[in-house]
Amino acid sequence: xxxxxxxxxxxxxxxxxKIVDVLAPDYDIVARFQGGPNAGHTxxxxxxxxxxxxxxxxxxxxxxxxxxxxxxxxxxxxxxRGEAADLEADGVDLHSILRISKKAHLIMPTHRLLDAAGExxxxxGKIGTTGKGIGPTYSDKISRHGLRVGDxxxxxxxxxxxxxxxxxxxxxxxxxxSVDFADLKQKESEWLEAIDYLRGFELTDxxxxxxxxxxxxxxxxxxxxxxxxxxxxxxxxxxxxSSNTVAAGACTGLGIAPGRIGRVYGIFKAYCTRVGSGxxxxxxxxxxxxxxxxxxxxxxxxTGRERRCGWLDLVALRYAVMINGAxxxxxxxxxxxxxxxxxxxxxxxxxxxxxxxxDFPYCVGRDAEGPADVEPIYxxxxxxxxxxxxxxxxxxxxxxxxxxVKYIEEQVGVPVSIISVGPDREQTILR
Length: 431
Ligand code: GDP
Ligand code: IMO
Ligand code: MG
Fold this sequence. Notes:
The chain is an alpha/beta fold. The chain is built from 12 helices and 20 strands. Helix 4 crosses helix 5. The two termini are 23 Å apart.
């Protein structure tokens, strides 16, 4: 069997959690390949809402599905324990359905302090991170200083931890950041307790586990976090996250060879949103932007921050489809546009020198707060002015809506296979 991937094509929060939950019953394994508790993946069913951060979105699916936290993930033991406890309280027997890679890196309390200090030092140019210590943890991984899940079974673990902590404290002091040592001590003892809790899980060489499963004809769905435009290499650097959110990240983040990848599901909203700083060419600063935010409840699942809203950007979408080799598209939150008479779609950018491009350029602005230095060129499409949230078959959707879908398919060159018309699991149309 080949492994399929589901990942975000925009700036995150496209609805990955919802669709992984919908597709999970068709798979034997659901595996997260990168990111950490910066993610907030929302699932809704039976009138309940669940937000997952580090744990894969296959945990609620019926059947014998194994969920894997891959080596590409960074794990905060304290947040993991909280998330796991919530799931166990909801009746999920997590210990029996979850495997955690020994090669996943651990987020320490001092990583969060470093994240905050780094942001404070950047002042107006800050990235607007989630403050979860993501950047510093991946930095330690790359500079070969990181602590891994597999280390926690070592008798020497507390010493390894203390050495890393002391190094972080030295860096913090060089940065001029003040450290509340009493608070840090408290957080560290909580952290070490959470490490003990983590020891009770199936710590696994997940690359072997996943590859053996594929050899045995088991199906695997790789779940991405964040989105392509937040990728460390291909996103709007430096306003990105610190991991490879693109399809290639599933190979390195799980140990799956490129030839074993099957479908790549690219998920996008019928419009665009972004949390944190950085360029966002189609951002709307007017009443329409506010309306999209209010109808779409565009507030961060992790930080509660307002999401910036704008029209669908086909320049960025085509770029994301290219980088990921997306084979299938999934369009989310289509219902949010139900009441708009006209819908705009950005088809090209006008660059500062006046030329027009359909290719996403090197840099669309390094200014954290100001508008992007490209001007979006729009096409206007008539809205459908119909409540589509109760539709369950493609044929039930109004012709104007289907034209919008057809237009996107033509522009991007990939079929839209799934359409979401509301947050609930049931509000999903499979074509
Ligand atoms: P993720 O990070 O990609 O999993 O996405 P988030 O969970 O952060 O954000 C998606 C938000 O939109 C969540 O609040 C979902 O409940 C909600 N949502 C998902 N699909 C739809 C949809 O089709 N329509 C509406 N109105 N809301 C949706
Ligand atoms: P999901 O998986 C949206 C953004 C942050 C910030 C930048 C860097 O729910 O789609 P970080 O804490 O990663 O160093 O922050 O990336 N960001 C996200 N935005 N959805 C996410 O995850 C995000 N994870 C990080 O807002 O701009
Ligand atoms: Mg999210």
